[in-house]
Each structure stands twice: as structure tokens, then as C-alpha cells.
Amino acid sequence: MSEHTDVLVIGAGMGGVCAAARLAAAGRRPLLVERADRVGGRASSFEQDGYTINTGAVAIEYGGAMEETFREVGAEFALRFPDPANVFRVGGKTVNPAKGGWAFLLDRITKKGAKVLTQLGSAKRGDYPEEQLTLEQWIARATSNETVHRLFRNLAAAIFAVNADEIPAKAFLTYFMEKGAFRKFGFHPDGTIGVCRALADVVERDGGRIWLESEVVALHSEEGRVTGATIRRGGEEIEVGCAAVVSNAGPDATIALAGEEALGADYVASIRRLSKPTANFIIHVASDEPLLDTPGLIVFSNTERVCNAGNMTATCPELAPEGKHLTVVYAVPRPAVGPFDAERELQLSLDELRAELPGMAEAEVIDARVMQGDWPAQRALSGYEMPRETPLDNLWNVGDGVRDYGSGGTQSCAETARDVVAEILG
Q1: Which helix (H) or strand (E) segment is 272 a member of?
Q2: What is the CATH topology of the domain spanning 277-371?
Q3: pLDDT tens digit string along 345-381?
Q4: What's the CA gap between 205 and 199, in Å, rounded?
Q5: Which of 421, 418, 390, 422 is nearest to 404 (CA)?
Q6: Of 52, 36, 11, whose CA–CA distance to 188 is shortest?
């Protein structure tokens, strides 16, 4: 091997930078390898005509593993917090349920929401539905009200990038009852890349290295352990020895790098059975006037594809040219798992958005992209998470494909990084 590192970290997405920063702060010397020209992966940003366009996540949770990571590695958690953070659009009006909770929200939709509240109360006490019951089926037990169904569907779409008939009700309820339910979050004034860049700075501050525009093309192993990797960098291939590997590339990509023979047929088969990446659309809209009457995120209840939107410049005006406004919109196709007609689904999403927000008539869609396949909204369908450990005893996965059951968002990536690094240090 021409080079050596304590721990090789593959991919500078949120899970990768969290792991690398924790390792560096603990005195290890990680090498973080990223094939793109910037850190962040599906939680990154780039500039376009004076606007900051995010490649995926925009809202960063605090009060959990993400904030804990910043505190423990000594990085600045420079977020700005909208108030109110989460609201709902019901019947064309914005509803803030912060004080009244589910009862207040459901009362605005239907006078027959008592049975939904009863089912939610049961889940809060730990009485979850059976695993095979979908969220759509669980809601149908309580009500046939279409607005209630769309609301829960859009909550599932906003958090997990799925439709209500694709996610187990138990996974959805576990998130809302046990995992914080995305109540506390902020936006970064540099775009989401600012979060990942702060962690990347820790890696280099504490003696680690970051290779951008570089790609791990193979992992080498002997006697059940990874011994090194071949990395393509600057037009040449470099052999790097390592004591351990953390992959943020996703379990499928990790198999391709390590080789099926090294990992074993049973493991490979289980990953391919569980691997169910989800899809969504991210739409950035520029306007002269704000499209939303709230500074944070809004969840819709009258749409079939558009699930939520964020008023980015209300909290972070730096994300747009002076005097301009930037709104980011998320939409989930039907289906979100498996093949779909991307052009048709995007057009239907834009039609919904124009019907829901009158200001769209004077606004401009400056970026609209689909996240699917090898660049998914999430690498695993909630309820079908894959294992972090591999048959090679010094190779782990991190990221949203191997999150805890019922977790979601970038917070889940930080959780996987924390737990894997604890294993490595132990």
C-alpha cells in the first residue's frame, strides 16, 4: 500500500462527515473520500444565479444526535430557527397546532376525529399496530375523511419520502411517538452544505484528510477483514491501507466495492431483499413576494403529491439575491418505491403546487430534480432498514439506509455515525 489511514470513510454525505468528524476528534486519522467536488452528498448545496440550491435536506434537527455531534467535536452549530417551525395548510388556511396538538388539528378538519385520536393515544401508550398494517390501512380503521388521509400521507411523504400505502403504520407512529417527530429544527444560512462543511473542517483541524473528486473503486480484504482500498484520484489509482472502513455510500454500493464473495451469499441476499430506496422531487421556486405566510415548513392536506414546502428566505435571506424570495417544495411520486413516470409525476406535482399557491403565477421554478435509484430520497423504506454491520468485522455502513427503526431525516444519519464510531473506538 502506498498510503495508510486509521479509518477510511467512503462518502462525505451527512453520515460520512459525522463519522469522520467524530473519529478525528477522538484522535484517529480518518481519510474521507468523496467523488463529488464538495461535501454533503444528498445534504449539500450549490449556487445558481445568486440562489443557494439544496440537493436534498434543508431542515436540520437539533436536540438530538446531530447537535450532540457538533458539541462533542467542537464545531459551531450555526442554525437559525423559524418560529413557528411546523404548520399545516387546511382548507386554504394556515393552521398552527403548536398549542392544541393533534386534537386541535383534527378538529379543524372533521368533527369525527375522535377515533383517530383514540388510535394515536393507543400508540402513545406503546400499543402499536401489527407490522404488516400500512399507514393508509391504519387511518382507514378510524376515518374515511379524505383530508385526514391526505394529511397523514403528506406527513409520511415529508419525513420518509413514501406514500401512506407504502410504509408500515408502526414505523410511522414510532417516529412520531418516540423519535422527536421533527419538532425542533433550523436552516443554515449557507444552505445545508454549511452543516457538512463545519464537520469537514473538524476532520482537517484534528489531523484527518479529505479527498474530493476522488472515488473508492474497490475494497480489499483478507481473512474476514478489510485491509485497504483502491482509490482513483487525479487520474491515477492509489492503494491505501486501513484499519477500518466506514461506508456512507449505501449497503448496495458497499457490496459492489467489497465484492459479493467477501461478504457472503446470505448477507448479499438479505441486503437485496431489504433494499427499497424511495423517491421524491425537490423543487426550488424564486419569487418577488413570499409564497408562504409562515417562516418554517408547511405540510399540505389538499394534495396527492406535493407534501410540504419551506420558506427559506424568511429565516435565511442570504439564500437568494437581495429582495428575492426562495421556496423549496417537496413532492413524492406515486409510487415512491419502484419505477414511475418521472416526467408525468413532476408535471402533476407542479400543477398541484400552482393550484395550492396563487403566487406561483408570478414565480419561477429555477430548479426541479428527481431523487431516485442510486441518488434516492432515502436509501431504505422505513420499516425495511438494513444492518450497519457486515460480515467483514472492520467494515460498517452509516447513513439513512441503516438508520434505527422509526428514525428519519439527517438526524438518523448522525445517529448511525455516533453508534458506528463508538464500536470502532471500543
Answers
A1: helix 265-274
A2: Polyamine Oxidase; Chain A, domain 2 (3.90.660)
A3: 999 999 999 999 999 999 999 999 999 999 999 999 9
A4: 10
A5: 418
A6: 52
